[in-house]
Design brief:
Blueprint (H helix, E strand, L loop, with lengths): L1 H25 L7 H8 L2 H27 L2 H4 L2 H24 L6
Helix pairs in contact: 1-3, 3-5
Length: about 110
């Protein structure tokens, strides 16, 4: 039941983050200009937004993958192992992505 709730909450959060992303990065007159993106990524507020976006995407995607995998009878026997793999992949991906966002520097 909790996975169902996580899926719904992250789906709503994804709508918010995707709207922000599309308006700021892709919607005219904000065409993709890497100098503007570099300046935006230097701002700590945008780094927090990007990290929250990353967390939301990972939670939504990995919980969805877990549910799909455990729907199969052959895989359902290994539920705990699948859950452990999903958790490890999620933690590694989150820290790797967060480190990438936090280490961003404006090119000189």
């Amino acid at each position: 039941m909790r996975i169902f709730q996580v899926q719904r909450v992250t789906a709503v959060a994804l709508l918010v983050f995707m709207t922000i992303h599309m308006v700021v990065v892709h919607y005219p007159p904000f065409h993709i200009d890497f100098s503007i993106i570099a300046q935006r990524m230097a701002n700590p507020v945008w780094k927090v937004i990007e990290i929250l976006f990353l967390l939301t995407v990972l939670l939504h995607g990995l919980t969805g993958a877990y549910v799909v995998l455990t729907d199969y009878k052959q895989v359902n026997k290994f539920r705990k192992a699948v859950a452990a793999v999903v958790v490890v992949v999620g933690i590694v991906a989150f820290f790797w992505g967060a480190l990438t966002v936090l280490s961003w520097q404006v090119p000189a």
